[in-house]
Structure prediction request, 116 residues.
Amino acid sequence: MNDEQRQEIIRRLQQGEDLSSEWARILFPPEKREYELVYHGKEREEDIIANTLAVPLQKVRTFGKNGEGWHNKLIFGDNLQVMKSLLEMKRAGQLCNADGTHGVRLVYIDPPFATK
Prediction:
């Protein structure tokens, strides 16, 4: 925020004027410097995740031998439900990368239709 903007805000507040929503980004700049798709009625990420049911993943087949504690997964299912399941597995420490770190290195969704 520059000095001119600061003085304008002070003047408006002293005169009892409301600040329009245009001042929100100046007063409260976003913490992260990324692009984001914004539209009316957009649900928060937290709400989408909370409202999505996780599904149990069932092992059908094993391909080859991998390192201890990790393996690749080929998952068939609804992408949003599978992502929720993977997130819960990560939080529970059930996903392990080849280098021993917890989590997932890559998720490839093909085709990416019906994504919420």
